[in-house]
Every structure is written in C-alpha cells, then in structure tokens.
C-alpha cells in the first residue's frame, strides 16, 4: 500500500533549511527555501514519486525520494 511522499518531502525541506510559511488553498502548503526566489508549493497528498522529486527540484534540493 502506498502511503504517499508528503512526509518525506517535508522532512527533506526542513533538513535543508526551508521553512513553512503558511497554509495555501485546499491542502497545499507554502514553503520558503534559502537560495530560491519563489515560494515552493507542497501538496498535502503527494502520491507520485515524480511529483515529490519535482517539488524538491523547485526547492533547489538535488536529493531524490
């Protein structure tokens, strides 16, 4: 059973110095990351590994889930 990747993405963001800014619309969250000019949007239910890696890429993190 797939649990999703949201918890792992949040963990990696926090480890790299990103900070939770606020809740977005629906179940989305807005995060800010050092060295990235735009906020990073994190879905509350990331079920795809590809989407999780895309969020990390937007945050400037080269790690893969």
Topology, element by element:
Layout lengths: L5 H10 L3 E5 L5 E4 L7 E3 L6 H10 L7
Antiparallel strand pairs: 1-2, 2-3
Features:
65 residues; alpha+beta; single chain
Describe the structure.
- The structure is a single chain.
- This protein has helices at residues 6-15, 49-58; strands spanning 19-23, 29-32, 40-42.
- The chain is built from two helices and three strands, in the order αβββα.
- The longest helix is centred in the first third of the chain and has 10 residues, at 6-15.
- The chain is globular and about 30 Å long.
- β1 (19-23) and β2 (29-32) form a beta hairpin.
- The chain is an alpha+beta fold.
- It is 31% helix and 18% strand.
- A three-stranded antiparallel beta sheet has the order 1-2-3, with helices on one face.
- The relative contact order is 0.27.
- α1 (6-15) packs parallel to α2 (49-58).
The biggest sheet, with number of strands, parallel, antiparallel or mixed sense and barrel status, is: 3 strands, antiparallel
- Overall average pLDDT: 95
Tell me roughly what share of residues is in helical segments: 25-40%
Instruction: Find the count of extended strands (DSSP E, 2+ residues).
Output: 3
Helix and strand composition category: alpha+beta
User: What sort of overall outline do the alpha carbons produce when their principal axes are compared?
Assistant: globular
């Amino acid at each position: 059973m797939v649990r999703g990747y949201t918890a792992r993405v949040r963990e990696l963001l926090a480890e790299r110095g990103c900070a939770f800014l606020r809740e977005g619309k629906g179940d989305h969250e807005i995060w800010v990351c050092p060295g990235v000019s735009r906020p990073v949007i994190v879905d509350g239910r990331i079920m795809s590994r590809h989407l999780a890696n895309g969020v990390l890429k937007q945050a400037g993190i080269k790690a893969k889930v």
